[in-house]
Hints:
D-Maltodextrin-Binding Protein, domain 2, single chain
Amino acid sequence: xxxxxxxxxxxxxxxxxxxxxxxxxxxxxxxxxxxxxxxxxxxxxxxxxxxxxxxxxxxxxxxxxxxxxxxxxxxxxxxxxxxxxxxxxxxxxxxxxxxxxxxxxxxxxxxxxxxxxxxxxxxxxxxxxxxxxxxxxxxxxxxxxxxxxxxxxxxxxxxxxxxxxxxxxxxxxxxxxxxxxxxxxxxxxxxxxxxxxxxxxxxxxxxxxxxxxxxxxxxxxxxxxxxxxxxxxxxxxxxxxxxxxxxxxxxxxxxxxxxxxxxxxxxxxxxxxxxxxxxxxxxxxxxxxxxxxxxxxxx
Length: 299
């Protein structure tokens, strides 16, 4: 008989692409996962991973095992989850894959109340700007905007339903360089841009009275969207240039005067994000509790 913990360790390493990332995802240690995989390989008599100093890649045998084992372990989890029906309150783990913007702007109004209402649930949030297969990443659900949702996903609105793309700069910068009156004026300003992990850098889009204007300004600073976004915000506060970002992210700096709105009548609105999850599997009790909580509108 194979040890279920060793099988879970194998899946964690295979999905994460390494022992360290697998340890982060599973809450274990890299050395513990490595030992579990070695033990499993010895029992099976086949190598499951090709290991180098830079990568850990499943062998053909490893890929074959992963393809069969992933759904089987999901069934085990679903079977154990049935026990939640005998509890007064659901218990277990809930893993969410979300963009940094959602972790910063959406979840703070939801998570404390949810965890207080369901003390038996342990929530893990992975902030990731890449659009990933939530199941392959070992997550139960994710948060994304409508244009990045897959068609076979069930989507539930979460957070404010209308958001705005805002532009802003420090009063000192605007005093020195002037205040833009039309989006095209941004082409003559220092603008602080963000680049997605994919390498793409989307143009800034504005709209007023049915007129849509897209500009692709340049400037002295480009940051990776997500973890480095705050660097661009602080650079804008210091007077380096004009930043474009979620209005909710910049609102505190408008209120304390560190930043001044730029081209506010042109700010484009867009629908808020969605909680999404696969519709082809049984919904675990912790996820069902989270869905019911946000549907009830309890912040």
